[in-house]
Amino acid sequence: MTDLGFIHRFVPATRPGLPPLLLLHGTGGDENDLVPLGEQLSPGAALLSPRGKVLENGMPRFFRRMAEGVLDLADLKARTVELADFIVAARKTYGLAMPVAVGFSNGANIAASLLLTRPGTLKGALLMRAMLPFEPPALPDLASKPVLLLSGAADPMVPAASRDRLAAVLGQAGATVSHKVVPAGHNLTPSDLAFAAQWLEEFGLEPLQ
């Protein structure tokens, strides 16, 4: 689908009562990338999966960067607003409740930016291989929003200090943060999926039995 400002894929819910998942891919992914993961984590939930609109050497991203680990903060700010507006429009179009973001790498970073600047767009967030995208000038109100941060112990793309700072900032803003560091690099592992499933269950975001 190309309406609402983003090329995106929408999978309607088949089981009522589950929060929809907003699937945000990493660099080089597209609107199809995380759909299998969403279906695995929350079978029957509605899935909303936009494609990033920025191209880096032909690879879709959600915002520009100057170099690896060096983000274009002006572009990130504008793209975050654009994505937040898309979420609002998609909720109206598809009749969705507030979604839980499931982001990987670049997608996780813009999900973190949403939490820091447009917290009312997300019910919670699963941030896989994320870093603090910027130091917020003021803390948002994230009271009781569940956030799971999944980091790789040997991730060459995410400095440990940045991932830990992200967890700290979100916690200071009032989010209920769980930060797991798994024995992996930037890639996802079965441990990530196990932690994600456990987190969804703990916060009542799992499929109804």
Count of extended strands: 11
In the sheet with the most strands, the strands line up as 1-3-2-8-9-10-11
Shape by Cα distribution: globular
Largest sheet: 7 strands, mixed
Describe this structure in words.
This protein is α/β, with parallel strands linked by helices and 209 residues long. The chain has a single domain (3-202), classed as Rossmann fold. 32% of the residues lie in helices and 22% in strands. The chain contains 5 helices and 11 strands, in the order ββαβββββαβαββαβα. The protein has helices at residues 35-41, 73-94, 106-117, 160-172, 190-202, and strands spanning 8-11, 21-24, 47-50, 54-56, 59-61, 65-67, 70-71, 100-104, 124-128, 146-152, 176-182. Strands 1-3-2-8-9-10-11 form a 7-stranded mixed β-sheet, sandwiched between helices. β10 (146-152), α4 and β11 form a beta-alpha-beta unit. α2 (73-94) packs across α3. The longest helix is centred in the middle third of the chain and has 22 residues, at 73-94. The chain is globular. It starts with 7 loop residues before the first strand and ends in a 7-residue tail after the last helix. The relative contact order is 0.15. The mean pLDDT is 93.
